[in-house]
Design brief:
Length: 377
């Protein structure tokens, strides 16, 4: 039985999605928020090598690194050089399953010890996942816990792809495909190991394969030094839709990334309803939603939205548009959902004219309101 509109709104309030005075309630104090960067990628993609190189830069000397291990004895942390950052190794299992609770406890404990000056102060956290990790539950854990949501801010997911073995890995392993689909930026590693006469063609083929699963994330050649400290630390707030090929939006695989844009600002209450309905209707098939939103109430201060599965990180307003492009841009990453399902909600949000289609308020009261073609397209 579908939940009533009032029940949905109450659930949205509990998750911080319902409109408050300015649309989303008061944000946490920026002074207390610790940036958190996730580095993922399939086995052998070069995650440790990249982090090791980044830690040598002065911009990351006050970084705390958490290394997730697979197996009973952690080894990867021994590969990190003794730089200024502190390294903590999680050795009991995979972060995407058994270790998720441990991660929440560890981050909460680190925040408390940092406040009490029981550990050396750190400015950010870098979390390296295992090569077999599905990032979705990790992102959900970071956003679902009410304490972590106010103390840590997810600044981006960097996924490394082995340029030599990438095509075969993408074809054989669903974890690798999800790591790419959920990335905010993608680093191509080991490009220097491809023979020079074949390099350009093989890299273009790999980039095309990656765009099938994530047409929006920028790509950088790690071996060529294109992913340095400045690029890594830049928070993933901007969403670029210009380079997304139309074919990538209709990929035949179950993992799909859909982009939505609107030039007119939207009301904060309407966007809160859109988010709540999106999560209620798609459930676990919604892997991630992220973007910049132009609110009618604050047109000069774009709203950053970032969520995983059915939990959204607390939305927050920026002081200015990061790229000068003042329009709403939202990317929705799903598993096995047709675009028509989300189009229904987006059209109701943007006010696009539709024959016999309910608006957001009507959908909030009755998510199963009839529409030609049905809810599931």
């Amino acid at each position: 039985m579908a939940a009533s509109g009032s029940a949905q709104r109450e659930a949205a309030r509990r998750e911080g999605l319902a409109p408050g005075r300015d649309g989303f309630g008061p944000p946490a104090s920026e002074a207390e928020v610790i940036p958190l960067h996730v580095v993922t990628g399939f086995l052998g993609s070069g995650k440790t090598t990249l982090i090791n190189r980044l830690l040598r830069a002065r911009e990351l000397v006050d970084t705390l690194v958490i290394v997730n291990e697979w197996g009973e004895i952690g080894l990867d942390h021994l590969l990190f050089e003794a730089v200024a950052g502190e390294v903590i190794s999680l050795e009991a299992g995979c972060l995407c399953c058994a270790l998720r609770g441990d991660l929440v406890d560890l981050l909460g404990d680190l925040a408390r010890r940092r406040d009490q000056k029981a550990v050396a102060p750190f400015a950010r956290v870098v979390l390296e996942t295992t090569g077999l990790a599905d990032p979705t539950p990790i992102l959900r854990a970071l956003t679902a816990d009410p304490v972590l949501a106010t103390r840590f801010r997810l600044c981006g997911v960097t996924t490394l792809v082995d340029a030599v073995n990438g095509p075969a890995t993408l074809g054989a392993h669903g974890e690798a495909r999800r790591q790419i689909a959920l990335a905010d930026r993608i680093g191509l590693s080991k490009t220097d190991l491809i023979a020079a006469p074949l390099r350009a063609a093989q890299l273009e083929s790999l980039r095309a394969a990656i765009r099938d699963f994530n047409p929006f994330a920028p790509m950088a050649d790690v071996a060529a030094g294109e992913l340095g400290p400045a690029e890594f630390l830049t928070e993933a707030t901007g969403i670029s839709l210009a380079d997304a090929p139309a074919s990538a939006l209709a990929h035949a695989a179950s993992l799909r990334a859909y982009a939505f844009a609107a030039r007119e600002p939207v009301g904060a209450p309407d966007f809160a309803r859109f988010q709540a309905l999106l999560h209620a209707m798609l459930g676990p098939r919604l892997l991630r939603v992220k973007g910049l939103v132009a609110l009618a109430e604050h047109p000069d201060e774009p709203l950053v939205v970032n969520g995983a599965q059915q939990v959204l990180h607390a939305p927050r307003r920026l002081k200015a548009w990061p790229d000068g492009e003042r329009r709403t841009r939202v990317v929705v990453i799903v598993d096995g959902v047709e675009r028509a399902v989300i189009d229904r909600l987006w059209d109701a949000l943007s006010g696009a004219a539709q024959l016999d289609a309910p608006d957001l308020v009507a959908l909030a009261e009755n998510p199963l309101a009839p529409r030609p073609g049905g809810l599931l397209g």
